[in-house]
């Protein structure tokens, strides 16, 4: 009990000294609310920093959600590569309209030609491939 009274007495003495310094003007208190201006300024600074930290934390949370989503997509892609190496049929996109053979995309031109030119002297029929025979040259 005596320890409590000693601590209480010290706190009362400190409060008295604080009030004396504020009333005498040694501690600035322009608005007269018995809170030092330095302390009020620090509280405002802490509020600004807290607001900025919350904003940054929210943005980082959004970015981490995006990273998590992309990581899941990456795992799915890696699984598809592993399946392709094993020789399993492809999952995912369906073939484009038509016979289902070929590249599945329309290229410019009439579709009649010898195919892509490969390196060489320029003589020859181009690349030989198997397929429907449309636009790939003569076999």
Q: Can you walk me through this structure?
A:
The chain has helices spanning 2-24, 37-86. The protein has 139 residues and is an all-alpha fold. Among the domains are: 1-30; 36-90. The termini are far apart. The model has no long low-confidence stretch (mean pLDDT 79).
**What class do helices, strands and sheet pairing give?**
mainly alpha
Q: Gap between N and C termini, in Å? A: 107 Å
Helix and strand element order: HH
In which range does the helix fraction lie? 40-55%
Question: What radius of gyration results from the CA coordinates?
Answer: 39 Å
Tell me about the biggest sheet?
none
The proportion of residues in beta strands is: under 5%
Poorly predicted sequence stretches spanning 5 or more consecutive residues: none
Average pLDDT across residues? 79
How many H/I helices? 2
Count of β-strands: 0
Any idea what the shape is?
A: elongated
In short:
The protein is mainly alpha-helical. It has helices at residues 2-24, 37-86.
Features:
mainly alpha, 2 helices, 139 residues, 0% strand
Helix and strand layout, with pairings?
Layout: H1 2-24, H2 37-86
